[in-house]
TrEMBL record:
It comes from the Bacteria. This is Uncharacterized protein. The chain crosses the membrane at residues 38-66. Keywords: Membrane, Transmembrane, Transmembrane helix. It comes from Kineosporia mesophila. The keyword Transmembrane applies.
Length: 121
């Protein structure tokens, strides 16, 4: 029986040696499964660029529809507890008590928009 480290090394080597077949190789072998064609298409540069464009446009759409996200420090409550007094609560300073923060993508969009207009303060 192999040890866990030897098995992990064997599987890692098998993954490194395996490669996705290119579309010309698929046609030559006569293989016609849909998943192999999709895997081969995404292995190409055009597939990776398309996938990157889809993910980027999806995030841009998210930043357009929902520009704010819950504050990660106060977990969207807008309140912060004092470290030694359990009952003492005050407004969280990073989100000004709203519990919302501007998304990174929306912040970049606003910066580029103000730079283009030349209305930066």
């Amino acid at each position: 029986m192999r040890s866990l480290a030897a098995t992990a090394t064997h599987h890692t080597a098998a993954l490194l040696l395996a490669r996705a077949p290119m579309p010309a190789e698929l046609l030559a072998t006569g293989e016609s499964t849909a998943t192999s064609h999709i895997a081969a298409w995404f292995a190409t540069t055009a597939g990776l660029l398309t996938l990157t464009a889809l993910i980027t446009s999806g995030y841009a759409f998210t930043c357009w529809i929902w520009p704010f996200k819950p504050c990660r420090y106060c977990h969207g409550t807008g309140k912060r507890r004092a470290p030694f007094d359990i009952r003492a609560v005050r407004i969280h300073g990073r989100c000004n008590g709203t519990g919302l923060r501007l998304r990174f993508g929306r912040r970049v969009y606003e910066y580029l928009r103000t730079e283009q207009r030349g209305t930066r303060r």
